[in-house]
Amino acid sequence: MVDIDEFLSPERLLLDFPGDSKQQLFHDLANLASTVTNVDAATILNAIEQRERLGTTGIGEGIAIPHARVPGLPKLIGYFARLGTPVDYDALDDAPVDLVFLLLAPEAEGTVQLKALARIARILRDPEVGARLRTEREPQGVWGLLHGRVPGQAA
User: Is it true that domain 4-146 has CATH number 3.40.50.720?
Assistant: First the structure.
């Protein structure tokens, strides 16, 4: 199993992130990822858009997990964004999306990407975790939730 610390850091938690549209969200996330990976934002954006054309990454219940393999990316990287305003995402259930987990992987890291996607999906499929991610105000609380620590539950 891939540990979430291998691709996410507290600096890449984006709370109340602006999002006017799905396209703008992808553009903004690609620009952020470019600054920490030294991969051109257009390359990242193109990879995200190409993957999205294969089928929506909006999995339902307000959650999307856009992901792509990116040429020249040095390592697996993720961003968690809680949107200030939900966006139309063409999700499987047609519901707007407000929780977004971007996962980018090097081109040759398909297996690692799949393991990371499975880890993210396991975390986000818990309705209680999703509800708490929407209301938690403190970054350290969000960080704990993404690590599977739900406040009030035994560790």
Answer: no
